[in-house]
Structures are given as C-alpha cells and as structure tokens.
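Thread: quick sanity check before group meeting

JM: Hey all, I'm pulling together slides for Thursday and realized we never actually wrote out the predicted structure for the chain we discussed last week. Dropping the sequence here so it's in one place. If anyone has concerns about the input, flag it before I start.
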Amino acid sequence: MKENIVYLKYKKYAKDYKLDSSDTRKLWKIIEPIATHEEFIKRSTDPYYHHDIKTLGDHILCDTIVTYKLANKLRKDKKDLKPININLAVIIAMFHDLYELPWQNVEVKKILRNKHGFVHPIEAAVNAITWFPQYFKTKEKAVIIIDGIIHHMFPLAVRRIDNSPLELNNQEKYDKLPEKYKEIIKISTNIGAYGHYSLRKSFFIEGRIMSRADKIVALKKDIGSFNGYLALLSGKNKNVKKKVDKH
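JM (edit): ok, ran it. Output follows.
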C-alpha cells in the first residue's frame, strides 16, 4: 500500500534524527491521519521534489520530527511558562508546505511578490483547511495553526493579502473557503506589513518552534549538493532531469 511507503520513510527519518521508539510511536499516532491522506502521499513521490532530491513529503516528515523534538525539549526546559502544545506544533509542521504544485523546473511568475517563496505558505494554509477541516474547528486552534503556517519562512517575508492579484495556484480553493478562514489568513498576512509583504515571526510559540525546525532541516539535512543550494535559490534543480509541467 502507498500509505506504507510514507510510514517506512517516517521510520527511517525518525531513526536518522534519533527519535526513540516510544516517541516514534507517539508522533506517528498524531500525524497518521495527515500522512496517510492521498494528497500527502502524492507529495511524497516524483515529481514533488523540494530543495534537492528529497520529495516534499520527505522534507515535511523531517520538519515534523525535529519540531516534535524541539517542542519536547523546550517544554521540559521551561516548566514555569505556559505549556507548549506539542500536538499543534506538529500539526503546523505537517501543514506548512502543503502547497499546490511542484515549484522547481517550472516557469516562474513575473511579479516578484507572487513567486513561490512568497505565496506558498498561503497556498499551504488553504490546502490544509480544505483537506483537513477537522483541525480548524475552533477559532483558537485555527488562528495558531494558520499563523504558524503563514510565517514559517521568517526571516523571509510572506506576501500580504491585499487588493492586488494573488496568482495562487489554488485560487479556486481560496475563493471557496468560508469567510472566517479567509479573514484569519488576511489578518495574519497584514500584521507586520511592509509594502506588499508581511515580515514577522509567528505570534505563537508553536509556530516559532516549527519555523526553527524548518531552518535546521533545510540547511543541514535537505540539501546534499551545490546544485541543491542553487535549486533552493533559483528554483532550477539541475539534479532533477525531468521538467515538471505546471499545467
């Protein structure tokens, strides 16, 4: 079964990141409904390459494992502070890069603010709400998860929801979202405004932990070659010979 492929990858990365067997089981129990969804499985295969030759699903699994480890460590180290919601941090990690289309080796958009790096967090939030509405039932959780997804790229900016064209690859899904979710996304992208961009950390510790995990994985583990760094910066992945048809 295709679900088993994702689980086997997860087990491998859990071992690579030295997650013990008990935590490996606990974390899988949290993420299984997402990891076994057809859209996640699709992003764990060709042509959904991410920074180098890893798939998008591989990257997300690694981010999730590191997020889980960081959140557990911080919760133990800061017992006097408000407890960290580890489940929410992990869910943010599983959703943060669920963007619509493979982005490497495709024609890039001409308007800078509409390019992949600036809009993919919005696409990911829209897809997460569309495919996994059960995680967004309460406003409190929805705000934390969405804000974490939107600002996971910090210190890089995200494109604001303003009056200019968005050019989202999942624009139809965005248009169909209930207004309450559109409003949360809009507010999240408009705080910390700088021109057409929003530049800030997530307001919530769960989102900030996930953002830190993303940097650890992307810079230390995802990229295994010079061409991988070029792919990250340019979107042209020389390690992937097959060009992806955007349409």
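AS: nice. The beta strands are 158-159, 193-194, 197-198. Residues 56-77 form the longest helix (22 residues).
JM: adding both to the slides.
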